[in-house]
Specification:
With about 325 residues, the protein is mainly alpha-helical. It is about 45% helix and about 5% strand.
Length: about 325
């Protein structure tokens, strides 16, 4: 099955405003396959990225998208835009188009808005999900066994990243939920990886995921977003425990894998601190990555505080059920 198709049957239940246009999907897949010979030619002299590559990781609804928006509007970074992301099998071609069409265009991003990780303008950052799933095909869960990872074409991945870095003439930064369970793999694959773990109050993560289910599918009964290795066990629980378990499973796995990463190659940003002082948090990133011999060029104005969305939106009964589920899942042994 093509990696363009939904990775889980529940994904087909999307409400009309979130449904994928299958004709567009088919066209883009054909276009990308048509461009593969040129992509192969462009990768011929590429080996691996020479500069540090930043990966933003965190649970769904943690604030990773707004951090990515802030980063690429503040510093000269290479990133997959909504335009580039259409060329998921031919990222070199996408990078050239981004460089020629978008690099000199002023950003229209003023409010740093998004819809469940999706941004709105061609120049804004994209999760690049089809690119990552082309290298790491997702089946029923997003967790990969050592045997599955042993079969990944590391050479091709490194060549594509190196080509994007060369064409965009900047160090790369990515934010994708597909990366959350690949930290250990990336540490052993990328010459100089750097990880930003975005954290948020677990209650507001869980509440936002719960509300995303309703917004996306019209019901809280359908699973939304990242499926950890405990997915099948969690699916047997009620919706509150499913969401709470999803939060704790993802959080625990990210922290487990980040323990193996050198302190100089990682940092933590709390969503609440990012909203309160985005200038200070982005400056910390700039200082941290400069120790990897990468001074970042400032391209944007000073950042102003952002509106924090940590306000309870569920009614009291639902909120209490979700908090109780989080407390129960916090001590669950399956993590």
């Amino acid at each position: 099955m093509s990696h363009l198709h939904y990775g889980d049957p529940e994904e087909r239940k999307r409400k009309d405003e979130f449904a994928k246009d299958q004709n567009s999907e088919y066209f883009m897949e054909r276009l990308n396959k048509f461009l593969l010979p040129l992509e192969d030619e462009m990768l011929r002299d590429c080996k691996a990225p020479k500069l540090p590559v930043t990966f933003i990781v965190g649970a769904p609804r943690c604030g990773g998208t707004v951090l990515m928006q802030l980063a690429v509007n503040t510093f000269a970074l290479g990133y997959p835009s909504n335009l580039l992301a259409r060329f998921f099998m031919a990222p070199s071609i996408g990078a050239w188009l981004q460089r020629m069409i978008l690099n000199r265009a002023p950003s229209r991003t003023k409010e740093f808005n998004s819809s469940y990780g999706a941004t709105f303008f061609p120049e804004e950052p994209h999760e690049f999900g089809y690119f990552w799933t082309s290298h790491f095909p997702v089946e029923s869960i997003h967790y990969f066994t050592p045997q599955q990872l042993a079969n990944i074409d590391k050479s091709r991945l490194l060549k594509e990243l190196a080509s994007m870095e060369k064409i965009l003439s900047k160090c790369l930064i990515f934010k994708s939920l597909n990366l959350d369970f690949l930290i250990t793999f990336l540490v052993n694959c990328i010459p100089t990886p750097f990880f930003i773990h975005v954290r948020r109050d677990p209650y507001f993560l869980a509440e936002s995921i719960y509300l995303a289910r309703i917004a996306r599918y019209g019901t809280p009964d359908a699973w939304w977003s990242l499926r950890p290795k405990q997915y099948m066990a969690l699916k047997k629980l009620d919706n509150y425990r499913q969401v709470a378990g999803q939060v704790w499973a993802i959080k625990t796995e990210i922290e487990r894998q980040l323990k193996k990463v050198s302190g100089s190659n990682k940092m933590i940003i709390n969503y609440e601190d990012l909203c309160r002082d985005p200038e200070g948090e982005l400056s910390r990133y700039c200082e941290k990555i400069s120790f990897l011999d990468l001074p970042l060029e400032r391209i944007g104005p000073l950042l102003k505080p952002l509106e924090e969305s940590n306000t309870v939106k569920l009614d009291n009964d639902e909120s209490q059920k979700l908090r109780a589920a989080l407390e129960e899942m916090e001590t669950e042994k399956m993590w």
